[in-house]
Amino acid sequence: AIRTLESLSCRTDVLIRTKDTAPQTTLHRKERLSNMQGAFAAKNVLEHETYIVVDDVVTTGATLADAKRALLQAGARRVLCIALSH
Q: In the 3-class helix/strand/coil scheme, how is 50-84 assigned residue by residue?
């Protein structure tokens, strides 16, 4: 089904940071990947809905990957990831 912009909502109550992590910019690729593992949990997920996660910058994709993992584990039907810069 095609949805219009009016049917989208911006939710800031879904992803929760579960651990403090070092800034990604200070780490090498392997460290960035392990740094973000388990960094997010999800709550208030509407099961069977599609979620769009927006990140300002993506390098390794570790932040988006962990956010996606948390949403899917919490019952999201699908998660789309968008980065504003690469």
A: EEEEEEEECCCCHHHHHHHHHHHHCCCCEEEEEEE
